[in-house]
């Protein structure tokens, strides 16, 4: 019997999702034995043209990580959609824009100016600035165009499934692969795979009491008690606004959840879920007092939408 | 064509909705720009509802509830008292004017205050103009009809 064909791709990605695939450890050999890996730029020497030559829908499963940030990301997303039976948005960036999505708080110009001119560590000798076309002796070079905004994969092509996490946890990746290989009927299109249907708090072993918070602390400002709920101690922990699935990994390491598994089920907007959760636990009963407590939260938008900004209701800052 | 602000008003059932009703019964004139959505308590107004209202094209959102201490569910409006300023900070970070979101306490006997709030808010939004955020392009007419 012919082996099912597997493709892996990275768009606007940090590479962590690729490492996560390797982190399934010796099981990677099972993957290599079970699948015919037909495209995996980070690990094997394939070219885009090899994919273009494939028949439509000839790839059985494509794990796509990274957000859509430039014209190349989008072009390959379309190509892989065309060639794949099942396209899976793999990891927070592909699912919801992820960390790159935070760029939606700045304009492209602000960003390019900072990186190529203004940042203290930049010495711009020739006022170099990225261009999409450049002439050299050998001919014209073309590089992809940076988009104004970061988009999740689903904004450019139809996505069959989502595997959340930054990066997805290896056990969860393996479970998904096993499930697909088992030949059981696949869940409805659009489902989230490799995660739970509760919140991170439901997987957290810490002891919770009634919360009454008068001041929020940043993690470096306080040494947290290892057994008590971090939020009870005034540390912003995204647990109540985050989907279960990782096993409360960070919290078990004494670090607050940053929300990488995305919004819990039936929640349209992770940030507003967090606002709702925090509003219930702030111990203040007048506008002045409330203002003072809110002042102790550093970077609310970047904290509550750290991974999901590009996927949220408003998606980006209005840059006028 | 002149700009008519589209405003969504979330009114708590026990106080503010009755206040709005009283304004009507007493024939106090108030701007027709507020589309009222009745909720059991101002504390039921999930921040998502408000963001969704803006996304669907509301130019302003006003949440009205019982005065502090008078909430039918005791603590509900204290939650609201924290949520709205919290959300105002967030919408500002998204590039939406904070003034487009407003919180008011209106009791069942304050029909006049209801009308005053509605009239003032409508004029304030008229000055701000239509919502401009790129994610808020859907026309509210399409959703609500008319
Ligand atoms: S989801 Fe996280 S690990 Fe994966 S590419 Fe994005 S930033 Fe990297
Ligand atoms: S808020 Fe954080 S620390 Fe507290 S129970 Fe939830 S996940 Fe655990
Ligand atoms: S605890 Fe939160 S941030 Fe950490 S892996 Fe789990 S979902 Fe992601
Ligand atoms: S019942 Fe009116 S604000 Fe709670």
Structure description:
The complex is a heterodimer of chains A (320) and B (146). Chain A folds into three domains: 127 residues, NADH:ubiquinone oxidoreductase-like, 20kDa subunit (Rossmann fold), CATH 3.40.50.700; 41 residues, no CATH class; 112 residues, no CATH class. In chain A, 28% of the residues lie in helices and 14% in strands. Chain A is built from eleven helices and nine strands. In chain A, a hairpin with a 2-residue loop joins strand 6 and strand 7. The longest helix of chain A has 13 residues. Chain A is globular. Chain A starts with a strand and ends in a 16-residue tail after the last helix. Chain B has a single domain, classed as Rossmann fold (3-Layer(aba) Sandwich). Chain B has five helices and four strands. In chain B, strands 2-1-3-4 form a four-stranded parallel β-sheet. In chain B, helix 1 links the parallel strand 1 and strand 2. The radius of gyration of chain B is 14 Å and the shape is globular. The model of chain B has no long low-confidence stretch (mean pLDDT 94). Classes of the chains: A alpha/beta (320), B alpha/beta (146). At the A-B interface, helix 9, helix 10 and helix 11 of A face helix 2 and helix 3 of B. The structure holds iron/sulfur cluster (SF4) (3 copies) and FE2/S2 (inorganic) cluster. One iron/sulfur cluster binds next to loops of chain A.
Q: Keywords for this structure?
A:
heterodimer, A: 320 residues, alpha/beta, Rossmann fold, 3 domains, five-stranded parallel sheet, two-stranded antiparallel ribbon, 11 helices, 14% strand, globular, B: 146 residues, four-stranded parallel sheet, 5 helices, binds iron/sulfur cluster, binds FE2/S2 (inorganic) cluster
Poorly predicted runs of chain A: none
**Most extensive interface:** A-B, 31 and 29 residues
Radius of gyration of chain A: 22 Å
Strand order of the largest sheet of chain A: 2-1-3-5-9
Strand order of the largest sheet of chain B: 2-1-3-4
Oligomeric composition of the shown chains: heterodimer
Share of helix of chain A, binned: 25-40%
β-strand amount of chain B: 15-25%
The total tally of domains of chain B equals: 1
Name of the CATH architecture of chain B: 3-Layer(aba) Sandwich
Distance between termini of chain A? 58 Å
Bound molecules: iron/sulfur cluster, FE2/S2 (inorganic) cluster
> Main beta sheet of chain B: strand number and arrangement?
4 strands, parallel
